[in-house]
Amino acid sequence: MDAGNLSVVSEFVLLGLCHSWTMQILLLLMFFMLYLIIVFGNIAIIILIITDPHLHSPMYFLLANLSFVDMWLCSVTTPKMITDFVRENKTISFGGCMCQILFVHFFGGGEMVLLVVMAYDRYVAICKPLHYSTIMNLQKCIGLVLTSWTTGFVHAMSQMAVIVQLPFCGPREIYSFFCDIPLVIKLACIDSYNLGILMNADSGVPAMTCFIVLLISYSYILLTIRQSSKAGTSRALSTCTAHITVVVLFFGPCIFIYVWPLSITWVDKFLAVFYSVITPLLNPAIYTLRNKEIKTAIKRFRSYYIHHKGNI
């Protein structure tokens, strides 16, 4: 194709989740409520961990960071999806599309490493309890969190360095509610098959690596738990079960989208909704509803608030 005849695409069309107007209104109400729950739920967890001295430990420091990442991961795509439900022309500028790709992979890549860090924290707490306070000190925790953010940033920039240089001349329709690399690469005016495999590998290989490392870590932790006392086993098993649930819910859709060779539009849409909306919603619920210390902290906060309000 002659490069001189190419017209530059300045915006893309997001085809969204469905075409039925009635269904779009129902989805708007549902996702709006879910988004509010995600934002306020994660903010509440962060505030609770910051204000309650009993939660000033490495595990809850990492949990606060996970809530922060989940909140922003959801905010990259969900507000745009919600507003598009009431718009006839569901378009996104080229710059906006690139920003979605950048931040989805920035926060997504960071969360992958953060979940590995949380598994390492549980490994030290359960397998090396006598050395826990020495190994997982504040400086180490901050360093591990910064590592997760740095990894996410490097991963996202490695993707952007390729995507922004691709020629786009049409078509410009994206069969989803947000821009993602597999979908955008298909619209490039070049033979993108090999490039698509390479870019998917850039996301799929880290996801598979982190997932395998997590499976090995938790398997070793569970074997160690079996040799512990009955009381300790119950508490540790409860914590690890919550962590494993989060890992499966987060990595499952990511691995399917970036590693699975087949692309089925409705399945990809469902999985995209799952890891961008449902997972950030479930993470706070899983970590709080199954955690006695968080429940106790909520009761303390409620008692303090009622007592303080009564004195006024």
Can you give a write-up of this model?
The structure is a single chain. This protein has 312 residues and is mainly α. The chain has one domain (11-295): Rhodopsin 7-helix transmembrane proteins (Rhopdopsin 7-helix transmembrane proteins), CATH 1.20.1070.10. 75% of the residues lie in helices and 3% in strands. It is built from 10 helices and 3 strands; from the N terminus they run βααβαααβααααα. It has a 3-stranded mixed sheet with strand order 2-1-3. Helix 1 (21-51) runs parallel beside helix 9. It is globular. Residues 1-6 have low confidence and may be disordered.
Unreliable parts: 1-6
Q: What would the average pLDDT be, to the nearest integer?
A: 84
Structural class of the secondary structure composition?
A: mainly alpha
What is the chain-wise order of helices and strands?
EHHEHHHEHHHHH
Fourth CATH level, the homologous superfamily: Rhodopsin 7-helix transmembrane proteins
Q: Any idea what the radius of gyration is?
A: 22 Å
**Basic shape:** globular
**Helix percentage range:** over 70%
Q: First CA to last CA: what distance?
A: 75 Å
Strand content: under 5%
CATH class assignment: Mainly Alpha
Total count of domains: 1
Number of strands: 3
Identify the strand order in the major beta sheet: 2-1-3
Briefly note the CATH topology name.
Answer: Rhopdopsin 7-helix transmembrane proteins
The biggest beta sheet, please?
Answer: 3 strands, mixed
